[in-house]
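testing teh design pipeline on a random one, pls ignore if ur not involved
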């Protein structure tokens, strides 16, 4: 059912990874230059170019998971795969932060760095609600 709390969590995760991640800054350098997610597409290293693609994939998986409400086990496994994708995103972003060029200048980390963590929390809450619904359905089936 689409009116459940896990739908709200999954929709929030989809909006954060699909829309908000492209609007907020990820980091800024001492010169005042702000790097957005779209700026990673212009990097030389190929593993930085995959970050926007993984954010879009995460958003699509969240939207698809919303419509898998009739198959709760597939919905849970889809959310777990999405959590793994966001851990991969977090790892790439932290690696990028640790290897920022010219760290003699002080750089600031933006709110975009914490996006994968927020998405992981929302997906975990959605999985918890889905498992709760699954247990409720199984308990009602036992009473029949």
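output:
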């Amino acid at each position: 059912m689409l009116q459940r709390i896990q739908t709200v969590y999954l929709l929030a995760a989809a909006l954060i990874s699909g829309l908000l991640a492209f609007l907020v800054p990820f980091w800024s350098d001492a010169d005042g230059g702000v790097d957005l997610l779209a700026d990673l597409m212009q990097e030389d290293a190929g593993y930085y170019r995959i970050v926007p693609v993984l954010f879009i994939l995460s958003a699509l998986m969240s939207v698809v998971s919303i419509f898998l409400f009739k198959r709760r086990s597939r919905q849970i496994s889809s959310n777990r795969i999405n959590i793994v994708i966001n851990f991969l995103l977090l790892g790439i972003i932290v690696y990028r932060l640790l290897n920022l060029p010219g760290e003699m200048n002080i750089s600031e980390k933006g709110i975009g760095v914490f996006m994968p963590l927020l998405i992981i929390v929302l997906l975990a809450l959605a999985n918890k609600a889905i498992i709760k619904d699954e247990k409720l359905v199984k308990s009602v089936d036992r009473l029949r």
